[in-house]
Amino acid sequence: MNDTLLHMFLQTYENHPQKIAFIYRVLEQKFEITYAKLFEDVLLLSKAFRAKNIRKNSKVMFVCDNRYEWMVSDLALISLGAISVPRGSDTPSDELAYIIQHSGCEFLIIESLALYTQHKEILKQLPLKSILIVEAPHIHTLFANTYSYNDILKDRTISPEKIKIFYAQADNIASDDIFTLIYTSGTTGRPKGVILTHKNIMHNVHNLPKLIDLVADDVWVSILPSWHIFERAAEYLSLSKGCTTIYASIKTFASDLEEFKPTLVATVPRLWESMYTKINATLEKQNPKKAKIFTKLVAISASYNYNLRILKDELPRFDNDFFIPTCKKFFALCTLIFLFLPNAFAKSKLALVKQKFGGRLRIAISGGGTLPEYLDKWIDAVGIRISNAYGMSECAPGIAGRALNCQTFGTLGLPVDGTSVKIVDEFDVEVKVGEVGEILVKGDQLTQGYYNNERENEKSFTKDGYFRTGDLGKFTIKKELIITGRSKEIIVLANGENVDPSRIEATISMLPFITDSVLVGQDKKGLGILIVADFDKLKEYVSQHFDKAINSMENILEDQQIISKIKHDMNELLHYKKGFKPFEKLQNIHFLSDEFKPGVELTNTLKKKRHVIEQKYKEVIDKFLH
Asked: Burial level of 565, CB count in 10 A (0-12/13-18/19+)?
């Protein structure tokens, strides 16, 4: 029975030994790793870990970014039944120490000698049996507890007996065994340790591939942090089918797409926002006339797609009203006839954008946050099939997704097979179709709880075992899920009005100079927004609208005429005709001089830590929303 990650790995190795599992670069050199080589590397590292007394249920802190050694180390720990506690290299020392102590880790694996040196002082104070460094020369000295992988991998011989011992380890691992504790970066407070078992992750490994028709010939490009459950699950899915995974970086992402021509890409909304901004800004800079033509082509394609979906009943519906859809379908048909030739021309030109993704991209998966509506439409208009997925660490991560089994645009699709999703009011009573409430989840992928945190467990689960996601949403009549906001992030104004910040932030991000923003106004009379800007694009905007030259962010802050114009442009986007309410207008705006950084103001999947940002800029907020 293929019911643990180790069983899954062994089965893939047997089925695809000579298939390329991973491709990665070191400096300018490219390496291609077969499943047979991966198996050998995992076996040798598993043996070396065992020699260092890493056993079943040993907790191992693992601090490392995307690289081939990440997966080798992860699988080696899994093969021993050890429990990994992974984090990225940007984890602050105090947070690292907190997680090690809270989880009770006895061992530490850390990516490099430089990273070890960075945390050395605080690590000295922790009762770790061994510290293992992935990338370092031979460093071990007598009586020291620090080793490099080079130190522990001296014996690289593989015999039939060693292979037999390695296979036998699978008999000691059960589906209910814990394989990892993932301490969520969290947008609020201290990180919490999510307990995940083989049963949790294998629910996704068994159910998600069929949603995207995953086959051995598929090629993934990996860019998200491997330790994060969204990327980690994607890599496990790839392994389960014998696919190839390319380890990319932000720097090489664009060139890797063109070189390796992936069939699948999994990334977060923030990276789609970055691509959208970059493509539009590049066109505007090269040729403003062509940029306007491109925008018009996207608008034609989007309009055609929208009206085609009306005709095919592929837009969200919340009732069974017959007459209105029939009227809409008639007007949609007229529009489609009118746009038929312009759309054919637009699609042929927009196909050039698809080539930037390698030309073979079947599906682009967006997860780890809500994809803004304008981005969803833009990606669809340029001809890329976008699968908007919904999940969280507590569900390892899959909850729902608009995959190949769902054509209803503007939704998150249907819940994953074997997943029960309810939407309830404040009294935990299920609401009607189309009504907004909190999303509750139950299924085999659901965590048993947070490690050593009874207080959070009591708050997070209902009496009948459903998990409170903290997300607000609603169902369509076909039971497709739509996210409308985050209950824990709702801003309550002094007059009692509730405001969802994500929708406003997503809307103003359409302005080319907006890199990031955070809506504020809790308990205030009105709303304000903190803005992280691309200064070069902001200079272009000011030059275009005011015929002024600015040299610093201070020039912007000191010029009330510029601030007023930008605020006006933002409020135009937040017009009532576009579905915004009068109290959702911005009273004031403020440009920040520093960008948000992962591990500080952002989580590792680039979500905003609102409580951190609001605390950091409390004086600014109090001043401009007095």
From this structure: middle
